[in-house]
Design a protein that fits this description.
Blueprint: H1 12-27, H2 30-38, H3 43-57, H4 66-154, H5 156-175, H6 177-183, H7 191-205, H8 212-223, H9 231-256, H10 258-346
Helix pairs in contact: 2-3, 2-4, 2-10, 3-4, 4-10, 5-9, 7-8, 8-9
Length: 351
Amino acid sequence: MTKRPADTKTSPKAKAKKAEKADDANSRFEPIFHLVGMANVTESTKAMLSGMVPHCFRTCPADRHDFQQKMTAGLVELVNNVEADHVRVVEEARVTFEDVQKQSAEAAKAVEVAAEEAASARAVRTQKEEMLQEAEKETKLAQAAVAAAKAKMESMEADRSAIVAEKAEYESLLEGDWAVLKAGSMDGKKWRERSKLITFVLKMLEPVGLDAALNGALPVALKTKPADRGKFAEKAIAYSEELLHRAIASYSEKLEGFETEASSRAQALTDAEAGLEAAAQLQEQRQADFLSADAIVREKDATLASAKKAEKTLAPRSSKTKASLADAEDSLLQVRNLMTEFQNLVKGEEG
């Protein structure tokens, strides 16, 4: 009977130890595996290269056969390409970042310029508004002048009637009560009535030249009997009568010159209306100037708002491109660190 051959299967524990040793041996090739993983080649090519790495680099450089040397050279080229790809990414990220920075600077400058122009436009608008307000005041004054001139024209007949009435009142006083007081013909028992008449005479004299001295002297003179009046009393009475005659003469002159006054008032109205027309035209022009300035302010404010919005939009892009550049530079640094370890393996040196 033939003996059964001894069971040559490896135990699970032995397999695990063997795999662990293989993993330890392959761990030093991790830099190459990482670089291969970054390469711009197909997944099958990456798998083939990763499988070949241990066989190439466990062998001393001097002992590598022709195929291993060719594969090593291919890996060197691949790694250089990985570095070149990362350098290109860094340069592209830097160009993008610098472009965004340039745009941000231009946007900030645009905001600054727009703000200055908006401020200047507002200053001009304020000036135009003040000029418009001045014109509006002038128009109101001109309107008041026209209204006053029209009122004077409309009141001409009333003024003439008032002058006639006032002249008649002075004439009546001179011919009536004044004559009685001057003659001293009023009954002495009617002293209260005489006092009232004297008070009325003084009131009528006030607007035509009565002064303090005459105001004090005339009542005494009129209360004195004509035979007892002295020189100064007679002068007071004579001067008062002269004032009454002057008043009547003044009213007569006013009535005679009433046509001239009417013409003067008509001319005043014409001048006032011309002034109002000029003021209205000036106000209209300044209103147009203000509206134009206001439109420019709104335009400049819109430009400023747009510039601020553009600047604000660039802020996250600036942060994003800055972070992208930093990430690209970190990745390139990582690649170059891995390349140093790779080059040591190519030379057969331990990292």
